[in-house]
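Researcher: I'm preparing a figure for a lab meeting and need a structural model of a single chain. I don't have an experimental structure, so a prediction will have to do for now. The sequence is pasted below. Please return the structure as tokens so I can convert it later.
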Amino acid sequence: MNRETGSEPRARTIWAAAPLLLAITTALIPSFGNAASLSVDVYAGQFASVNSFLISNGNTMVLIDAQRKSREAQKLAELIRSKHQRLTHILITHGHTDHFTGIALLHSQFPQARIVVATEAIKRDIKEYAIYMDRGGATGAEPALEPALKPRSSENPEGFDYEGIIQVLGSDTLELDGGGLLELDSGHPPTEAMHMTTVYIRSLNALFLSDLGYNHVHLWLGDDIDTARMLAWKAELLRLKAVYAPQDPRIYPGHGDPTDASVFDADVRYLDDFMRIAAGAHAAAELITEMRTLYPDYREADFFLKYSAEAQVRPGDSRT
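Model: Understood. Here is the structure written out token by token.
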């Protein structure tokens, strides 16, 4: 364990498991003036470079987001068990499958943990996306749901009970049993997702951006994301920068490694470049090539960038 020095000491442990498939980082920052000292474990999934976050006060834990693939949710479950603490909540930040479809496996292994969302709108997004995927929405970008995630219905009585299992908090805070507070913000406009929750932990000065933030990963700009939502995304990043950057928080993006407030400008720049190039592109391949040239070290070029470009530049589009 390496211990960093400074006004707020921080220790970090690197967990080694499933080389090249899994990266888990533990960061512990003492919580001054608070009864509980919180820690953050980052589970970095292989599929879509998507993150899950395990928040612990040493006695109980809250998980933020649940991965896309059951094999990764299983590794996440193993991390949870390794902590020898009680998991009380699984918070899903928004209704994209790479953040919620691990809930079936996690619910089966941790039935005492409440699966929660901040708002009814996010619960509705999750249910509707699951139904859409089950009724032919699967594509190369979005593989079909695994059987355990197919929605429960009269035709599929053994399916996942999205309505009964997912609960709406109805609050803008989530408190760990034994101490520690998560502040929830679900007031964001439609951006990468129609509805989204970000989390701030004041005692850690830690901001969990969900999919408003990507760090060295190509942004997802496919499906129904249009230019208006890209512009709203850019504006929301600038607003969040104005609010949080002066505090110099540790930032945990939905995709990519933990970082600092520089991620706001980096993602704004990416959106500007994508919109500019897409506006003049005559084919998706042209947009892909130029974005890969500008961002050669960004992950998910063959997934996020590919399908985003195909959604934004279609054959026959008129370009000026």
